[in-house]
Amino acid sequence: MPIISSARAGVATALMLGLAAAGPANAASISYVLDQSSTLDDGIGYLQVTISDGLSGAIDFTVQMLAPLLAVGGDHKFGIQKFSFNLVPGADAAAIDVTGLPDGWKARNGGRLDGFGQFDISLKGNGSNRVGELTFSITGAPQGNPIPVLNHLAHQTGMCGLVVCDLFPLVAFRSDDEENRMIAEQHVQAYLARPANMLIERRMKLFFEMNFACLNSRFRPFKQVSTRIEKGEFEPPSMQFGPDRFRRVDYSRVDPRKKEFRMDITRTPIPIPPDRLGDRFQEIEQDVSLIQARGGRVVFVRFPVSGEFLEMEENLFPRTQYWDAFARQTQGLTIHFQDYEKLAGFVAPDGSHLDYRDAEKFSLALAAVLTEKLHPTGVARID
């Protein structure tokens, strides 16, 4: 969906709205043709975006101009100058995760494209560094590594509360995790260096987007009108963000291709051999000891997974060799969803995230299990 103001002005492109799928090239790659424009005729393929899995869990993007757009350009000054995209439901990525941009390009959270509204992440160059082909990667997007965050909390002397850690074996016990760890560490540093007004700005942004539809790309008027004509009703977005950062995802409204997207581009992890797990266990346990020595508690939770994620975990990280081995040696509490009737019945539509209809039910069920584990005498209660 290029937005072109003149033949010499460069191209701004947007992804995840009005896509015409070209179909997956192979199990780890999928291509889309962008065929919507704010000024040119719709239904013509102007750009192709290929998304594939990269190294250490990264996602690689290649944006290429196609013949109809090249014919419009006509000279060497013509090229891609801006690229914006929204994230699929459940994805946890930000501008800090974007790497490998051309010289002079920058990534930022948010941003608008004329005629297409607000987007989650925007990449931008200038008139002197337009490109005919744009390549970049999103690192650490498939999963986040909790170990650097746990280490950060362990060394905060004022931290003496409850730490609930999602211990995903495909992440915590993989050997090829250097880059994912680096990204998690960068997030910790970004949190420590956050400006004082960040929370205020985030709450203001959410307030305006939740109350003024024109500021939210998911409520773009022309998109809603076309949906009303096509389906006979206005369609709310599949994902909504709350002020508390809770993501309310309605998977019944998600394009099936997007639900499969995470699995298609998640690089198969390389497990740490069982006989070498001791070093990883010890690394985690040192942080647990520091937190609990101050009176805090650490609880490791295996949240529900389904489908191919569960199958991959069972094949590559057999529970007896990984989760159970870890649970036997840690001082922290461990909760595996398969061990509790209250938690075992939940299904993750995309493999690793719950639909909003189940999110509250699961949270209450987990809170009940936590209460039983932390207060076995029944001193505390969950209403």
Question: Could you explain the architecture of this structure?
Answer:
The chain is an alpha+beta fold and 383 residues long. The protein folds into two domains: 11-138; 142-177 and 269-383, Rossmann fold (3-Layer(aba) Sandwich), CATH 3.40.50. The chain has helices at 67-73, 147-154, 169-172, 178-192, 198-211, 221-231, 256-265, 277-293, 307-316, 323-329, 341-344, 356-374; strands spanning 11-15, 19-26, 29-34, 47-53, 59-65, 80-85, 98-99, 106-109, 112-113, 117-118, 121-124, 133-138, 162-166, 239-241, 247-249, 297-302, 333-336. The strands form five sheets. Strands 2-3-4-5-12-7 form a six-stranded antiparallel β-sheet. Strands 1-6-11-8 form a four-stranded mixed β-sheet, with no helix packed on it. β14 (239-241) and β15 (247-249) form a beta hairpin. α2 packs across α4 (178-192) and α2 (147-154) runs parallel beside α8 (277-293). The radius of gyration is 23 Å and the shape is globular. The protein starts with 10 loop residues before the first strand and ends in a 9-residue tail after the last helix. Mean pLDDT is 76; it is low at 1-28 and 257-261.
